[in-house]
Amino acid sequence: MSADTPHVLVVDDEADLRELLVITLGRMKLQATAADSLSAARQQLKDAHYDLCLTDMNLGDGTGLELLQFISQHCPTMPTAVITAYGSMETATDAMKYGAYDFIAKPVALDRLRQLIEDGLGISEVEEHHEEEDNLIGDAPSMVALKAQVRKLARSQAPIYISGESGSGKERIARLIHTLGPRREKPFVAVNCGAIPSELMESEFFGHRKGAFTGAVEDRKGLFREADGGTLFLDEVADLPLHMQVKLLRAIQEKSVRPVGEAKEFQVNLRILCATHKNLEDEMEEGRFRQDLFYRLNVIEAHVPPLRDRREDIPKLVQHILNRLSQAWDIPPPSVSSDAVNAIENYSFPGNVRELENTLERALTLCDGNTILPEHLRLASGRSTAAAPRHNAQATATASSVRPGDQPLEDFLQEIEKQEILKALDTTHWNRTAAAKKLGMTFRSLRYRLKKLELDRDEGEAEDNE
H or E element: which one contains 143? Predict the structure, then answer.
């Protein structure tokens, strides 16, 4: 074989399985070297370079976990997969926490083995994508640690549980893990588990055949098959009902799904990432989340810190968000007055980065000139760690509105904005120039908001001039 042929190290104390693995690798046009013990594997790793390692968990003179520890110290960039006894999920979970990218259970299925090897070699070929990582803004110690963890997690195929408060950026972390990993050319499918009606969940996740139930007018692949080869991100996974948790667990363990009304199962090869703002351990203890599913999804946890715990990142986040908005709106980036900066830095931001983005978008809309002032921010009163900026009457009314506990903050703020704009338009008989003055914004800003909120009437109706 040529020097460019990937070289795989096979470690197993069972001669029959060791020979099967070597033969399978040879048929895949890969170079294979076998070791029958932990000590022999260590020596091979010292003597030669390998692109991938397959190891059993029981090695006679040691364990696969010991080999994983050795690899993490001496060959940290080499992907390693483990072979476990059938049903030994606890062992497989431990292996992935030690650095294994995936596992395969005995008896070894050859098609699953080939996929495992291809996934591992894909990891070893991953290039650095620093420009993607740069989109994760922040130099606070907690963010530096998170960035380092994301780089490691991107190489693995282990399920990841992303914890953090609402609006902290959990989906952004999930997308970054996908983008930096070997599946980046494949689909990233995100689903909010709390937004799917209970009776439609099985069909949404696993698909259905035409005619399987009333309303099934065509075949549907389902989210698992849509994400095949890539990543499936289950947001707000704690909102899954118990009956769906059972089916989800089986699909993850068996790596196959059966569409509603279909007689056969379809194999899927995907990575599962999940997130929720709730505490999954508390949900499990209360009986609302299955313990077996919790341990299957929570192989490794990545925690996204709230914005209030990394206030030193706020200036960079403000500049990044304003630059992005200005580019989208095709306007010069505005400056932010010192008083506005102080107001932002002293605000608690219970909605985290999402609330900061909404605040800056609103401020950019209300800003008449090229400088954002405290009154443009309209931050809610009573949530600052220092003196809050003064509000005008309209902002005070907005802040005093009560948000329903189950309504996302972004939807709540958008609805308030919509009502205030409609009120001004009704008062001025839909004279947009007069309405813009009444709202304290430019005509251009009002026109943008009308289009965004889908309130813009036909352009032929009562055209206004700025």
Answer: helix 141-155
CATH topology match: 7-124 vs 130-305: yes
Q: Are 60 and 11 in contact (CB under 8 A)?
A: no
Q: Say which residue, 102 or 428, is predicted with more confidence.
A: 102
Q: Which of 288, 295, 287 has its CA nearest to residue 193?
A: 288
Residue 300, classed as helix, strand or coil, is strand
Judged on CB neighbours under 10 Å (0-12, 13-18, 19+), 112 is middle
Task: Scan for tokens 């599913």, then name that residue.
Answer: 293
Query: Please, is 329 exposed, middle or buried when counting C-beta atoms within 10 Å of its C-beta (0-12, 13-18, 19+)?
Result: middle
CA distance 179 to 129: 8
Q: What's CA 361's distance to the chain center, in Å?
A: 23
- The count of residues in the chain is 466
The pair phi, psi for residue 336, each rounded to 5°, is -120, 125
Distance CA 158, CA 99 (A): 9
Q: Where are the alpha helices (H) located in 286-408, listed in sequence order?
A: 291-297, 314-329, 338-345, 352-366, 374-377, 393-400
Q: State the Cα–Cα distance between residues 104 and 173, nearest whole angstrom.
A: 27
Residue with tokens 């909010």: 192
| Residues 234 and 193: beta-carbon distance below 8 Å | yes
Dihedral angle of Cα 423, 365, 447, 449, to the nearest 10 degrees: -60
Is it true that domain 7-124 has CATH number 3.40.50.2300?
Answer: yes
pTM recorded for the entire structure? 0.72
Every domain of the chain and the residues it spans? 7-124, 130-305, 306-400, 402-466
Domain 306-400 belongs to what topology?
Answer: Helicase, Ruva Protein; domain 3 (1.10.8)
- Kindly report the number of other CB atoms within 10 A of residue 290's CB atom: 18
pLDDT band at 379 (very low <50, low <70, confident <90, very high): confident
Task: List the structure tokens of 89.
Answer: 């999920």
- Give dist(CA 107, CA 11) in Å, integer: 16
| d(C-alpha 277, C-alpha 287), whole Å | 17
Instruction: Look at residue 407 in the predicted model and tell me its pLDDT.
Output: 62
For 429-444, the DSSP string reads: TT-HHHHHHHHTS-HH
